[in-house]
Write a structure and sequence with these properties.
With 350 residues, the chain is of the alpha+beta class. It has helices at 2-6, 31-34, 77-92, 105-111, 118-133, 177-184, 201-213, 224-231, 237-254, 295-304, 310-323, 332-346; strands at residues 20-23, 53-57, 60-65, 100-104, 135-142, 145-152, 154-162, 168-175, 188-191, 219-223, 260-265, 270-275. A hairpin with a 2-residue loop joins strand 5 and strand 6. Mean pLDDT is 81; it is low at 28-38 and 282-289.
Amino acid sequence: MTETANRSPLLPDRHPIQDFFICDVTDAIPKDDMGSMEHPIFSLATKPDVSVREYEHKGVKISILPSALGLATIHDKDILIYCISQLVAKMNTGAELHKTLHLKAYDLLVATNRNTDGRGYEQLKGALDRLSGTRIRTNIKTGDQEVTEGFGLIDSWRIIRQTASGRMTELRINLSDWVFNAVTAREILTLSRDYFRLRKPLERRIYELARKHCGQQDEWVISVELLKKKCGSASDDYEFRRLLTIICDEDESHSHMPDYAMSLDGNNAIAKFTNRKTVRPLPSSEHTIFPLLDAETYHDARTVAPGYDIHRLEIEWRTFWIDTGKPELKNPDAAFIGFCKRRYERNPNP
């Protein structure tokens, strides 16, 4: 009993890996039209989830449609994380990016802390099937026209080479335009390496939300009711609170949740996330010619200036900053968001 209680809730660190980047998939469907997307795409179920999910925000409707194998799961998302990390690494070196990635299956399994035995390769195939089978359908209104389109998480995949025992060695994955464009627009966040060690699907989803919303702030508070909606949990309210309580108790004992400590307040009606100060801070403007912006800032800028090309606005903002003598910026992120907000207020129709 004592040994079980003292066991870490984290999976063992099977392989040494580096930091990864993640496309904020639950918020990347066209931001210029939606501002944000709260409904989760990936299933938290451990059994095949064939339910259709519906979401509507400001006249934009989104449906997440499973294949016969079920929706892509939060653990299937590991593959997208790895693919995106490869694209970001190339982007940082100035290399030309392509939607088609040629990968070593073993490297993918090691990087995402998965088993490299035969079962690990079979699970990888199943994840690829669910990722390619899950479809997202949305409508976009422009003027008097309404366009409905559908797309997948990945377009296709193929085993290029495999051993005599049937294990894949070389793998080709064609990413969808949606994921590829989100990466080139730098809609990315850095994840803790311990993300891949989280056992429970709900823990992974909660960490993603904390990483996005808390970021480098000291804390983030959210109602349990809204947290359940953002997580996409199918549990009833009582069961969801019970699951949260278990996670909080384990985190209090083991501090296993990466980057952010989790606790419940207000008779378990409020969830609070406290920054452990393990997230690497961005360089300040004192150490660089140009102030660097946090990844979440681009999302906030799109929210206050819908319809604008945020990266073009960033160039204008930086030019303005230089032309005015490079004044000291105590908070470059807030300054840029304010610049975008004022631009939109002057001209809501770019």
